[in-house]
Amino acid sequence: MTLLDYGIVFTYLTGVILVGLWSERRAKQNLDAYFLGNRSLPWWALGASGMASNLDISGTMINTAFIFALGATGFFIEIRGGVTLIMAFLMIFMGKWNRRAEVMTMAEWMHLRFGDKREGDVARIIAALSAIIMTIAMITYFAVGSGKFIGEFLGIPSFWGLSSEFWAATLMITLAMIYTVASGLYGVVWTDVFQGFLIFGVIVYICYMAVSQFLLPDAFSVSLPMRDGTFQAVATTREAWTSVLPPWKLDIPAESLYSIYNLFGIAILFYLFKVTLEGSGGTGSYMLQRYMAAKNDRDCGLLSLFWTFLLSFRWPFIAAIAIMGVSYGVTHQGISDPERVLPIVISQLVPAGIKGLLVAGLMAAAMSTFDSTVNAGAAYWVKDIYQAYLKPKATPRQLVLQSRWSSILIVLIGLFFAIFIKNINEIWGWITMSIGAGMLLPMLARWYWWRLNGYGFAGGIVFGMVAAVVQKALFSGVPEYVSFTFAATVSVIGMVLGTYLTAPTEKKALENFYKKTRPFGFWGSVKKVLPQRTLAAIQKENRRDIIATFFAVPWQIVLFLFMMMIVMQRWDNLLWLTALLIPLSVALYFTWYRHLSTEVRVEETP
């Protein structure tokens, strides 16, 4: 990088820290201000912040690696998590359900669902601990990817036996911690909005650059990572590389790390099944925090729509970087490691000045994801363990101080584990398909099955997470559907045993939960506490949401592919994707959007 590039990066870092610190006074009022912004933040800011928080460097690098190595087909692998398909479910119903609970964290939600006695306490503590563990895993993932990227440009040396990548990640995380610890969700959201403008500008420029200056040849070679740490060149064509029709099978060499995707059709169906369960069960991560901070049902829907629309620009950016990487490989020595396509393209093909903006923009993306994750993770310790059980009479000042120290400690643990992880896909695959699978079915059943009690939820989470650790330690090289099935099966065993070996949740707690959140599912006599006319209105809303979800999921996939095909200049694919996108959008309008202002009030009969 030139002196101009370094100056741009320095100016950006200074600006984002100042924006974050500007919010510090409002955040220190109390926990609700620190973690939820007093539920006064506008929906567009929450949506823009959500978009920025999803654009992490690690995810961008692994998504670019898949597109570079497999072409548009690689998009479908990231249905497992990188496409963020859970947004379709949050947009239609899951976001507003969580907002109606009027809690600060998913763990606090357990008291609403299972009552505030021992059963609810067990579920709350286990939910909080599992969320903290997942937060640490995500910080490790961010550190590995951002270290690889930033280390490429800043030239930080290795010392104390630790790699330059580790110290690069530490530097970026330290800078993000300054405003995250000081200003809570206020700082997170407004710095994300500030960073979002920079990210969006960078995306538009890179896409224009790829379309106007780089043309894919009719035939070229890409590279695949092998299990022994080497890389193998594979020949492909422009037509195959830009095809959006996923093949049923891939022909990847068995020695490649990507060979686990050879049964591609089964993998896609499996990922869709997994995302459906995950989306229907909700998320406990930083994404959920945006909905708990929203003002009402309508804002939940609007922030989701804006969030998803902004996210659609991520995929043409990824495709543009992959196209530039392929072109660079044709004219120079080919890029061997797909996970290094992003930093190499920026280093070799982006002009001075713009390079500084791009590096700053991607650092903004990394910091946005990191600050959201840390802020949400710290809430579980402070709200659900420290205040709930260790020091119930803590003052607002003590709670905010505890929030800051817990944020720092969580980050330090995540950085420690980053020392031992070298491959981004290794940690991302484990998070999405193993540890996530161990939590998936208890998270799903809690919304739809009245008989699930707090002990069953806790048993399912504990069994599932232990299974994920065992899988990682004893048979880490298995296909992702095997690790998912193993962790999920063990989790179900723990959930069923915990549920049927203990008494059901008190009916009063169940009735209170149903009246507040109004989910669909198997609620038996619980929902009969409501007047018949009110219950009929709720059931009408539920039916409408179920129908809308069947349109929302394909709408999001088609929208993202549509945006990517513009950069790949496949106008034939763009034409038929448009033919799908228009009717799906119209269907969403009539089944969901025009009903956003309608909320069933349980206190009144319609």
If you had to describe this structure to a student in words, what would you say it looks like?
Helix content is 72%, strand content 2%. The protein has 606 residues and is mostly helical. It has a two-stranded antiparallel sheet with strand order 1-2.
Walk me through the topology.
Layout: H1 3-22, H2 24-27, H3 31-36, H4 43-54, H5 57-70, H6 74-77, H7 86-100, H8 106-114, H9 118-154, H10 164-213, E1 219-225, E2 231-237, H11 238-241, H12 264-281, H13 286-292, H14 297-311, H15 314-331, H16 341-349, H17 354-390, H18 396-418, H19 424-448, H20 454-474, H21 480-500, H22 507-517, H23 532-568, H24 571-591
Antiparallel strand pairs: 1-2
Strand order of the largest sheet: 1-2
CATH architecture: Up-down Bundle
Strand and helix order: HHHHHHHHHHEEHHHHHHHHHHHHHH
Q: Please state the CA-atom Rg, rounded to the nearest Å.
A: 23 Å
Strand content: under 5%
Short recap of the structure:
This protein is mostly helical and 606 residues long.
Keywords:
mainly alpha; globular; 606 residues; two-stranded antiparallel sheet
